[in-house]
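User: quick one, fold this
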Amino acid sequence: MALTSTMYTLQVELAHVDRGMYESLAFRMAMHPSEAPEYFVARLLAYCLEYREGMAFSKGVSDPDDPTVSVRDLTGTITHWIEIGLPDAARLHKASKAAPHVIVYTHKDPTVWLRQLQGARIHKVEQIVCHVLDRALVDALVERLDRRLSLDLSVTDGTLFVNVGNATLTGTVERVPLSV
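Assistant:
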């Protein structure tokens, strides 16, 4: 018997001071059985940190050619292609040709990945933005995952403050260059 995805109902009060964005977000996210909880949390944080009108999650493993998270304009054209983890050079090349804004969020150490990208042919690599999420923050959020989750997320000067339950968690999001 095939395992089904677990649905999470999320309520996020977002105060992204760095972007001047203040929103109340209510949405549902599916966690595929093969998806690691850390990846799920990174996807959640990326969605919140990049939130804008027209944002949506991909259909998941059923459509591997789609971005993990994307923003489309009213014509259906992808304007923001958001990847989670450590995508290979071919995927970054494809993303950069398909969308004017490509953003990568990773919850893993990018050192080896950045070396692997050295010398690879990636369209407009200098315009790709990569953010490294604080692993301790990701792990702390994984411990607090609940199928109905409410949290307050504030972002100031690259520092994330997350109020979940009766806990306040802090961590950073660091931008690293993809100079290949």
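User: anything notable?
Assistant: The domain at 6-176 is CATH 3.10.640.10 (Restriction endonuclease-like alpha-beta roll fold).
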